[in-house]
Amino acid sequence: LQNDHKALMKQVEEALHQLHAREKEKHARDEAEALAEAMTQNQSLPQAFAKVNAVTPGSPASISGLQVDDEIVEFGSVNINNFQNLQNIATVVQHSEGRPLSVTVIRSGKKVHVGLTPKRWAGKGLLGCNIIPLQR
């Protein structure tokens, strides 16, 4: 019985070593793929549909790191494919009060992700920034 236990534990140990070795290889492959994807994304930046033309200091937009001249690629669920007018963004903002929104912008030719939480603050609106549609 003791010998069976030792043999079994040895098999478990070997299996664990193999498992971890495979995980390590997979992780290295995933990292290489992510790097390659990031490289290709830099060449083909997604299309922006709107632009930030004002950010009030101390506002939720300012605190999140949104900047003037940021071109908006994704605002929560709104993107180039489903954007019709600024009312789309207003609706997303109203439904997301107090909850973080994922906003993707193009800043100086690079894709930047910003976490923006619409909320009540001293100024007007829930964001404290002005967004204009881009004419394409």
Using the CA coordinates, give the radius of gyration: 24 Å
Structural class: alpha+beta
Mean pLDDT: 89
CATH architecture of the largest domain: Roll
Organism: Aptenodytes forsteri
Domain PDZ: 17-109
Coiled coil: 5-42
Family: Belongs to the proteasome subunit p27 family.
What does this structure look like?
This protein is of the alpha+beta class and 136 residues long. The chain folds into two domains: 1-42; 50-133, Roll (Pdz3 Domain), CATH 2.30.42. Helix content is 42%, strand content 24%. The chain has three helices and six strands; from the N terminus they run αβαββαβββ. The protein has helices at 2-43, 60-64, 86-95; strands at 50-55, 71-75, 78-79, 101-107, 110-116, 129-133. Strands 1, 2, 3, 4, 5 and 6 form a six-stranded antiparallel beta sheet that branches. A hairpin with a 2-residue loop joins strand 2 and strand 3. The chain is elongated and about 75 Å long. It starts with a helix and ends with a strand. The mean pLDDT is 89.
